[in-house]
């Protein structure tokens, strides 16, 4: 009976959120309302039934239809978004010389900022005395560790050079299907090759190239429309995901991990501040920037999906911040798989700092820091833009450094909480790359950037 009553209330909340949409309540407000209700709903469930009870498990099986269904739709979009957005960037760039400058500048910003993020992660972990810290292991953590160890076994014999080699696609259909860990970066490489081929055809056979360009524009319009339909599910999906996160997480585990959560958010806030300093260094107003980027960052925070935020990311760059089209597409797309400051920079480095003293790594040695940061930079290539990217990045770093992976599994209780901040930071570093690149190349539209009316909002 308790299961039926709880699910009935769950459905009523979904109907309430749908009613808010019918009344045209602002999208971001509906997302945060769903987030808030989900947290309260999940906490009440845990207080009433416990996190490990059969009642909670049965209820969450049904709740997962909405929550995991939403995540699955986001995952469905990642590969089409990467391919269409990156190829479209090539069709809209003028001159191969500009293409090289755009690509170099975007990658430089992403790589430099992920290196800084790794440094901040190490420093923050030491500041909060997390090096060598121990955490309680419950049933959920035990199950997660078993899964992590299984994943680690799949890549245990892969050296760093082999990992780099795996980025090259050997069967693009396999990578389009996402069957490899490095499928995302492989799709990026394939898309870039298609784009370069387009530029060659455009020089020699402009008529054929124009047909291809129209086809890519048509695909972009269709994929963007699909994204809009999926994003409309966000208030419901986020509500369900938060119900699951709060109902299935042990309060004791959350308290046990509280120091790590606080430290992680301190590191992320510091990194946001560094992004602001970088903007100011290029004479871009950080306050104006963050005002205009707030909508997409808010969506990234609640949805926990860099991939799902890509269309809004690109639209924010072009229509609100004045970044020209090709640069925005390059920055947004590369930022999905390269140099993610949160998932591939701060998070794995903080985990390394926790484990390092237990295996004899001396964090007072500058060479150890350089080794960790260098490993993080290379491992940041190919991180997925939807849930699981941080885990994969951490596995690569730990495998390369020869560290035990159990600590990654111990984070399962706080994963959703930390992931919200990580995703917002990931999206921000890709937007930063677009704005800085556009500013350096003199293509930033200052009129759009300074226009307070130029704002982006999901409908």
UniProtKB/TrEMBL annotation:
Xref: InterPro entries = Na-dicarboxylate_symporter (IPR001991), Na:dicarbo_symporter_sf (IPR036458)
Q: List the GO molecular function terms.
A: L-cystine transmembrane transporter activity; symporter activity
**Which UniProt keywords are present, listed alphabetically?**
Amino-acid transport, Membrane, Transmembrane, Transmembrane helix, Transport
Q: Which domain of life is it from?
A: Bacteria
Entry keyword annotation includes Protein biosynthesis: no
Q: Where are the transmembrane segments?
A: 6-22, 31-49, 69-90, 102-128, 183-201, 222-242, 262-282, 367-386, 392-412
Membrane topology reported for the UniProt record: Multi-pass membrane protein
Q: Pfam families from the xrefs?
A: SDF
Does DNA-binding appear among the keywords?
no
| Gene Ontology terms: cellular component | plasma membrane
Name where it's found: Membrane
Q: What is the recorded name of this protein?
A: L-cystine uptake protein TcyP
């Amino acid at each position: 009976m308790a299961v039926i009553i709880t699910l009935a209330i769950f459905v009523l909340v979904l109907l309430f959120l749908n009613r808010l949409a019918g009344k045209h309540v602002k999208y971001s407000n509906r997302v945060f309302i769903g987030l808030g209700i989900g947290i309260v709903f999940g906490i009440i469930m845990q207080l009433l039934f416990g996190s490990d009870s059969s009642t909670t498990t049965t209820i969450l099986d049904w709740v997962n239809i909405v929550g995991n269904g939403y995540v699955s739709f986001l995952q469905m979009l990642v590969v089409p978004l990467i391919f269409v957005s990156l190829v479209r960037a090539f069709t809209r760039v003028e001159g191969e010389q500009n293409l090289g400058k755009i690509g170099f500048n975007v990658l430089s910003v992403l790589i430099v900022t992920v290196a800084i993020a790794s440094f901040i992660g190490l420093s923050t972990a030491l500041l909060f005395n997390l090096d060598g810290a121990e955490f309680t292991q419950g049933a959920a953590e035990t199950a997660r560790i078993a899964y992590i160890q299984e994943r680690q076994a799949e890549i245990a014999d892969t050296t760093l050079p082999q990992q780099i080699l795996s980025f090259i696609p050997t069967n693009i259909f396999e990578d389009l299907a996402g069957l490899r860990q490095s499928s995302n970066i492989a799709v990026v490489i394939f898309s870039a090759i298609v784009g370069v081929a387009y530029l060659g055809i455009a020089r020699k056979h402009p008529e054929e190239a124009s047909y291809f360009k129209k086809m890519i524009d048509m695909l972009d319009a269709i994929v963007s429309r699909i994204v809009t339909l999926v994003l409309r599910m966000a208030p419901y999906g986020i509500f369900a995901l938060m119900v699951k996160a709060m109902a299935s997480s042990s309060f004791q585990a959350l308290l046990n991990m509280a120091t790590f959560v606080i430290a992680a958010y301190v590191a992320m806030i510091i990194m946001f501040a560094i992004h602001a300093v970088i903007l100011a260094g290029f004479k871009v107003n950080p306050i104006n920037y963050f005002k205009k980027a707030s909508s997409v960052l808010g969506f990234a925070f609640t949805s926990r999906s860099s991939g799902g935020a890509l269309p809004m990311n690109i639209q924010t760059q072009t229509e609100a911040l004045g970044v020209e089209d090709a640069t925005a597409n390059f920055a947004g797309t590369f930022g999905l798989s390269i140099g993610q400051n949160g998932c591939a920079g701060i998070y794995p480095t903080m985990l390394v700092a926790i484990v390092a003293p237990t295996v004899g790594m001396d964090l007072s040695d500058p060479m150890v820091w350089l080794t960790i940061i260098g490993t993080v930079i290379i491992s940041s290539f190919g991180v997925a833009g939807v849930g699981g990217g941080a885990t994969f990045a951490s596995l690569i770093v730990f495998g390369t450094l020869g560290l035990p992976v159990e600590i990654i599994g111990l984070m399962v209780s706080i994963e959703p909480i930390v992931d919200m901040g990580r995703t917002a930071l990931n999206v921000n570093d890709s937007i930063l790359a677009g704005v800085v690149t556009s500013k350096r190349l003199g293509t930033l539209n200052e009129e759009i950037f300074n226009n307070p009316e130029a704002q982006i909002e999901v409908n």
